[in-house]
Amino acid sequence: MNVELTELGRRFGRTQAVAGVSLQTGTGVFGLLGPNGAGKTSLLRMMATVLPPSSGRLELLGRDPREHACRREIRRRLGYLPQTLGYYPGFTVTEFVEYFALLKEMPPGKVPRAVVTAIERCGLGDKARSKLKSLSGGMLRRVGIAQAIVNDPELLLLDEPTAGLDPEQRVAFRALMREIGERSTVVLSTHLVEDVGAACTEVALMNQGRIVFHGTPVQLTARGEGTTAAGDAPLERGYSAVLAEART
Amino acid sequence: MKVTGPPDIDLDRVWSGVAARVWCPKASRAERLAGWLLRSPGLARALLVTPSLMVGWLIASCVVLAAGVAATAGTGTPYVALFAPAIAAAGVAYAYGPAIDPAWELSQSMAVSDRMVLLTRALAVFGVNAVLGLIASAASGVAVAVTFGWLVPMTAICALALAAATLARSANVGVAAGVAGWAITVLAGRALAGTFTAALTTHSFVLPYLAFAACCGALVLYATRIPQGAR
């Protein structure tokens, strides 16, 4: 198992953002769904070792991130796209991806080719030498994905990766996730149910800091059958049905 | 148009090799030397790009120069000079911290230690300002005190701290070496001038200043803290 969470919790003052989440997942694409404020981003930040948990236990790639040496090793094998990608406007696409490849402690000799591969995989080849300040929101999102995959991560964490992408780019992105998910664990936090249906092998639905559903997209769809839950697509109805049940 | 080559040539691989050469030019000699000295190409890159992160750079430079003016002013007490590095460090930590650095969140998930990155950034801020101070000193005598009494010695102290941190593989050891180096520099200077004892005891603003410096120290520790339960 690449991700093992046991009763993981995170509190911000009086707010319990994540409340006792237990989860295990291995290779594949794992979708994390839920309404705003459900705790998806906090959970992802804990998995990215950016935010320490208040309680519970976290094991990533078979290592405990509380240990300095283990945390460093995890971070070498990790790819992370935050919800809001901060960037240096004066950097070019290549400089940005290369900078983070070096901070991930990739062997310097492998960096140039890895940078090219990541940029090409994200469809940014013709923008490789453009300054980040000249790019559109969707392109910046793809730059964020490129820096996340540059080290060929064993654990890839993506927070709202398709925000700002047009439909064609989203289709390409889902194909990329499926490809990466064949060898690595991809955890995808999203509002977009169709992303989960198209790309994920496993899905969890969060509400008020807790996981209220964990299964396959097919099982989530089945939860909406025969109900009056809102939604234009079967998976959306499953999502709404589970949420409605959790709220009652 | 899809170009097909001879069957024994992988055109994708050829292209990625060419693109790697064109898009990622070889690191400069200075960067390679820094990478070798710091045992980390990532830290070397962080060192060299620090001045190009303009907003953080300007804020850090302003704080460092203000601390330098205070440290070299004739206050008659060594406390100002002793604790000025805490103010400068707080300024650098703030300038490249979550409030200013747009990619801070991403940087937090990187394998290279954020404390080591902060040390390299402090060295870059002091080093470049020291060079500018030397140029200004050659043109005018106004900058001489700050340059030779603060920027140049602090550049040396930051380099010492970074060297100690690199050798010990611990940023904390580096900070301790830097603090010790600076304390020895300041106190030895006062002792040589024969003003050591009087300067330590005769000033009424010593306590408020110490409290302010302690707050700056706490700010640095907070900005670069290791996650709870992760020590």
Give a brief rundown of this model:
The complex is a heterodimer of chains A (248) and B (231). Chain A is α/β, with parallel strands linked by helices and 248 residues long. Chain A is 39% helix and 24% strand.
Structure description:
- The complex is a heterodimer of chains A (248) and B (231).
- Chain A is α/β, with parallel strands linked by helices.
- Chain A has a single domain, classed as P-loop containing nucleotide triphosphate hydrolases (Rossmann fold, 3-Layer(aba) Sandwich).
- Helices cover 39% and strands 24% of the residues of chain A.
- Chain A has nine helices and nine strands.
- Chain A has helices at residues 40-47, 68-76, 93-103, 111-121, 137-149, 167-181, 193-199, 217-224, 234-247; strands at 3-12, 15-25, 28-33, 55-60, 78-81, 155-159, 185-189, 202-207, 210-215.
- In chain A, the strands form two sheets. In chain A, strands 5-6-7-3-8-9 form a six-stranded mixed beta sheet, with helices on both faces. In chain A, strands 2-1-4 form a three-stranded antiparallel beta sheet, with helices on one face.
- In chain A, helix 3 packs across helix 4, helix 3 packs parallel to helix 5 (137-149) and helix 8 crosses helix 9.
- The two termini of chain A are 33 Å apart.
- With 231 residues, chain B is mainly alpha-helical.
- In chain B, 74% of the residues lie in helices and 0% in strands.
- Chain B has helices at residues 11-23, 29-38, 41-49, 54-72, 78-95, 104-108, 114-139, 144-168, 171-193, 196-201, 206-223.
- In chain B, helix 2 packs across helix 3 (41-49) and helix 4 (54-72) runs antiparallel to helix 5.
- The radius of gyration of chain B is 22 Å and the shape is elongated.
- Chain B starts with 10 loop residues before the first helix and ends in an 8-residue tail after the last helix.
- At the A-B interface, helix 2, helix 3 and helix 4 of A face helix 1, helix 3 and helix 6 of B.
